[in-house]
From TrEMBL:
Localisation per UniProt entry: Cytoplasm, Cytoskeleton, Cilium axoneme
Keywords assigned by UniProt, alphabetized: Cell projection, Cytoplasm, Cytoskeleton
Family note: Belongs to the CFAP91 family.
Keyword hit for GTP-binding: no
Annotated InterPro entries: CFAP91, CFAP91_dom
Encoding gene, per UniProt annotation: Maats1
Transmembrane segments: none
Domain CFAP91 intervals: 4-156
Record carries keyword Ubl conjugation: no
GO annotations of cellular component type: axoneme
Highest rank taxon of the organism: Eukaryota
A Pfam family per the record: CFAP91
Protein name per the record: Cilia- and flagella-associated protein 91
Species for this entry: Molothrus ater (Brown-headed cowbird)
Length: 261
């Protein structure tokens, strides 16, 4: 119930069948010599077409044996008549073979044309799909731009509608500081404010910390009890042997700590 498949099949190692040498006796024509042109893979093993050829060869040999001898004018005329009939039969058979070959060629041509048409239709479909996708992307981009412009114009109209009379309003400081989206908290660059220019505005600048003279004055004013600093030396994380080597467990702990970080 189980089967195996090797890397090399038995059929790949099969050679042509062995054909021993032979000697034909003088005056005899064995029928098997009519199959000498057939080889393994080219006519052998014999199929329906090869069997028809063998039958035709046998009929021709029988017809040749039945031909009358050329010893009298009547036999000669009869022989010529039989040969003409055989020639017509051969031409009819040849025409039939040509018709079969032409039909096979026509079927092959039809399949090739059908395959080419299918490939061409598939290529046209892919091109149409790409063209449609490009148009869809352009359409979506255009719609996105229209929506953005519409929202921008609506905001402008809403802002203009608040003061449609164009009256000058006095600044309301309380409302500005109460609204975290106002110009006080979030000024706009289009009205002349650039936050990057004053990036260090809120940075702490201390004379006693940024200058050497300030540090000296700060040290003089500090109490003496502040300066004595007790520092505990950390214990080594790695386990060291008496000979000075680090154990494998210690190395693993260091690697695990690095990976954890």
């Amino acid at each position: 119930t189980l089967g195996t498949q090797t890397d090399y099949r038995d059929g790949e190692a099969q050679t042509d069948p062995y054909s021993p040498e032979y000697i034909v006796r003088s005056g005899s024509v064995p029928e098997i010599l009519t199959l000498a042109t057939l080889t393994w893979g080219r006519g052998l093993p014999a199929g329906q077409a090869e069997m028809e050829i063998i039958d035709r060869i046998r009929e021709k040999r029988a017809w040749e044996a039945a031909l009358p001898p050329m010893d009298s004018p009547s036999n000669i005329a009869k022989r010529l008549k039989m040969m003409e009939a055989m020639e017509r039969k051969e031409w009819a058979y040849r025409e039939e073979e040509i018709d079969k070959l032409q039909k096979v060629q026509m079927e092959v041509f039809k399949k090739l044309l059908q395959r080419r048409e299918e490939n061409r239709n598939e290529l046209n479909t892919m091109r149409l799909n790409d063209h449609w996708e490009n148009h869809q992307k352009a359409k979506e981009e255009k719609m996105r731009k229209i929506q953005h412009d519409c929202a921008l114009i609506l905001r402008k109209l809403i802002a203009k509608r608040k003061n449609w009379m164009g009256k000058l309003e006095r600044r309301d400081i309380i409302r500005e500081y109460n609204d975290f989206a106002s110009q006080t908290y979030a000024p706009l660059s289009r009205i002349g404010f650039f936050p990057d220019n004053n990036s260090d505005y809120y940075a702490v600048k201390n004379y006693y910390l940024n200058t050497f003279a300030g540090l000296c004055e700060l040290e003089k004013s500090a109490l003496p009890s502040i300066f004595p600093i007790k520092i505990k030396a950390p214990k080594p994380k790695c386990i060291i042997t008496k000979t000075g080597y680090i154990k494998r467990s210690g190395r693993l702990e260091v690697v695990l700590a690095q990976v954890h970080q």
